[in-house]
Design a protein that fits this description.
Layout: E1 8-13, H1 20-29, E2 33-37, H2 43-60, E3 65-69, E4 84-87, E5 92-96, E6 106-108, H3 112-117, E7 123-126, E8 131-139, E9 142-149, E10 151-154, E11 159-160, H4 173-185, E12 189-192, H5 198-208, E13 213-218, H6 221-225, H7 227-233, E14 236-240, H8 241-247, H9 253-266, E15 271-274, H10 289-301, E16 305-308, H11 310-313, H12 318-333, H13 336-344, H14 353-367, E17 370-376, H15 381-388, E18 395-399, H16 402-407, E19 414-418, H17 425-438, E20 447-453, E21 462-469, H18 472-478
Parallel strand pairs: 1-2, 1-16, 2-3, 3-12, 5-6, 12-13, 13-14, 14-15, 15-16, 17-18, 17-20, 18-19
Antiparallel strand pairs: 4-10, 5-9, 7-8, 7-11, 8-9, 20-21
Helix pairs in contact: 1-2, 1-12, 2-4, 5-7, 10-12
Length: 481
C-alpha cells in the first residue's frame, strides 16, 4: 500500500483497536507498524491480534511490521495500611524490605538490588516523579530519605532511580517467557525496556536468535550515557520520552531526542519517537496545536517513525489519531523547509562500496528525471543505507525475504515489494521496472535507478547501480546481459 509520505506510523493495539476490522481500518488510515504491548493482555489476546494483523496483510498484499514491546522489570513500592499516605515536603520517609503494610513514615520496597546500588544523595522518584525523595542514609535493606517534593503515595506506585545504574537485567522472567512466545508467533521487532547497558541488548539478541530484530528503548539516563555502545548492538532505537522526562529534567529531553535521532540516521538504523505525541486524542477527536507541533518536530528531525500509544490502544478515537499523524506527515514533508532541514543534516559516509553506491543513487536522482530508486536487499541493509540518504524520490525495497519486507516497514521511505529469487541482473531490472509501474511510481516513459549486488542473494555485496528505462522492450534492447 503506497503512502504519500516517507515517515512511518506505529500504532499500539489494545481494547480500543481489537479485531480485524479495526486493525484494517487503522492500516488503511496510515498505520505501517502495529505495536503489541506485552504489559497488557494475555498471550491469547496477543495471539489473536497477531493473527488479525497477518490477515490484513494477506488481504491487502501490504507488508506490515509487528513490534512486540517487552514490559521490563517493574519497580514498585508495597502496600499501605490505609491504601495511601500524604507525604509532606521536608519530612523523613523510610523504604525497607519489611513486608508489613506501610504508613506515613515507611513502606516496603521489595527490591534488594535497589538498596545494593543506592548511595547517600541519590534521588528516588515515585509515581512518575510526582514524589521526589533524596537518600540520607542507606544500607542493604533500608534507605532513610527526606521528602524533596511531597504528595500522595499509594499502593504499588512505580519507583524510578535515575542517579545509578541498577544491577538489574533488562529481561525479567516474564520478559523471557514473552520473548519466546512472540518469537514463535513471528513478530518482526522486539522493543526492549529498561535498557541501561549494551549487555542488556546482547542478551535479548541471543535469546531472539535472529527470529526478530531488537529495538532498544532509551528511557533511562544510563542508556543516554551509553548510547553509542547501545546503538552499535541494536537494530533500531525508540526514544521513549515519557520515562526520560521522569528521570531527567524535562528541558533535557528535546536536545537528547534531536541528538539520538541524528545518531541513528548516521548509523542507518531506524528510530521511533514515542510517548504522548497526541495525548489529548485519547478523549478528544482533535489534537492540540502543541501536539501537532511536537509531531512535526520529530519529522523535521528526520525520525523514521512516530508512535501512538494509548491514543490508539485505549482512546476513543484511534482512527482519527492515525489520520492526524498521517495528515501532519504529508503536510510537513511537502514543505520546502523540510527538504532543506533534512538535507542540511545529512552526514557524508564513504566507508564502503555500498555507501558510495547509495550516495551516488541519491545524487543522480536529484539531478536527473529519475522516478524511483529500486534496491534489491536480502537483509535490509541496502534499503536502510538508501533511506539514510533521504532521497527525494521513492525507495522501493525489492526482496525475496518476507521477514525483511516486514521489518523495512519501520524504515523511512522504504516501500517493500516481494520478488522471487534473482539470478540474472537483467531480470532484476525487469522486475524492478514492473514494481515501479505497478505501484504507480513510474510509467513506461520514465526511468528508475536499480541498485543490486552480484552475485545475488549474498548479503553485503551491493556493487551495481544502473539507470534503467521502465519499458521492458527498452530494457532488453539496451542490456545484452
Amino acid at each position: 500500500m503506497r503512502r504519500n509520505r516517507n515517515v512511518k506510523i506505529v500504532a499500539t493495539l489494545g481494547p480500543a483497536s481489537d479485531g480485524y476490522e479495526m486493525i484494517r481500518t487503522l492500516h488503511e488510515a496510515g498505520a505501517d507498524v502495529f505495536r503489541l504491548n506485552m504489559s497488557h493482555g494475555s498471550h491469547d489476546e496477543i495471539r489473536a491480534r497477531h493473527a488479525a494483523i497477518r490477515k490484513v496483510e494477506s488481504d491487502l498484499g501490504s507488508p506490515i511490521a509487528i513490534l512486540a514491546d517487552l514490559q521490563g522489570p517493574k519497580l514498585r513500592v508495597g502496600t499501605f495500611a490505609n491504601d495511601a499516605e500524604d507525604l509532606a515536603e521536608g519530612a523523613m520517609f523510610r523504604l525497607d524490605l519489611d513486608s508489613a503494610p506501610g504508613d506515613g513514615s515507611r513502606v516496603c520496597l521489595p527490591h534488594p538490588e535497589i538498596f545494593a546500588a543506592l548511595q547517600p544523595g541519590a534521588t528516588l522518584l515515585v509515581n512518575d516523579g510526582k514524589i521526589r525523595l533524596q537518600v540520607i542514609e542507606c544500607g542493604p535493606d533500608f534507605a532513610n530519605c527526606t521528602v524533596l517534593v511531597g504528595g500522595v503515595i499509594s499502593n504499588r506506585k512505580g519507583v524510578n532511580v535515575p542517579d545509578v545504574v541498577l544491577p538489574l537485567a533488562a529481561l525479567s522472567e516474564k520478559d523471557r517467557a514473552d520473548l519466546e512466545f512472540v518469537c514463535q508467533l513471528g513478530v518482526d521487532w522486539l522493543a526492549l525496556s529498561f535498557v541501561q547497558r549494551p549487555e542488556d541488548v546482547q542478551e535479548a539478541r541471543a535469546l531472539a536468535a535472529g527470529r526478530a530484530a531488537v529495538l532498544s528503548k532509551i528511557e533511562k539516563p544510563a542508556a543516554v550515557k551509553a548510547f553509542d555502545q547501545i546503538l552499535a548492538v541494536s537494530d533500531g532505537i525508540m526514544v521513549a520520552r515519557g520515562d526520560l522526562g521522569v528521570e531527567l529534567p524535562v528541558q533535557n529531553v528535546p536536545p537528547i531526542q534531536k541528538r539520538l535521532v541524528r545518531q541513528c540516521r548516521s548509523a542507518a538504523k531506524p528510530v521511533i519517537v514515542a510517548t504522548q505525541m497526541l495525548e489529548s486524542m485519547i478523549e478528544s477527536p482533535m489534537p492540540t496545536r502543541a501536539e501537532v507541533s511536537d509531531v512535526a518536530t520529530a519529522l523535521y528531525e528526520g525520525a523514521d517513525a512516530i508512535m501512538l500509544s494509548a491514543e490508539s490502544a485505549a482512546g476513543q478515537y484511534p482512527r482519527e489519531a492515525v489520520e492526524t499523524m498521517n495528515n501532519v506527515a504529508i503536510e510537513v514533508e511537502s514543505d520546502p523547509t523540510y527538504r532543506e532541514v533534512i538535507e542540511a543534516s545529512r552526514r557524508v559516509h564513504r566507508h564502503t562500496v555500498a555507501d558510495g553506491i547509495v550516495a551516488a543513487a541519491r545524487e543522480i536522482a536529484e539531478t536527473t528525471d529519475i522516478r524511483a530508486i529500486c534496491c534489491y536487499t536480502e537483509s535490509g541493509t541496502t534499503a536502510a543505507l538508501t533511506a539514510r540518504e533521504r532521497p527525494r524520490v521513492p525507495i522501493i525495497g525489492m526482496t525475496s525475504v518476507r521477514a525483511t519486507a516486514r521489518r523495512l516497514a519501520l524504515t523511512w521511505g522504504v516501500n517493500s515489494v516481494m520478488t522471487g529469487d534473482m539470478t540474472r541482473f537483467k531480470m532484476a531490472v525487469v522486475n524492478a521496472a514492473r514494481a515501479a509501474r505497478d505501484g504507480g511510481y513510474a510509467t513506461e516513459a520514465d526511468q528508475i535507478l536499480v541498485i543490486a549486488g552480484v552475485p545475488f542473494n549474498v548479503p553485503g555485496t551491493t556493487n551495481i547501480l544502473r539507470v534503467a528505462p521502465c519499458e521492458e522492450r527498452l530494457i532488453f534492447a539496451t542490456d545484452p546481459g
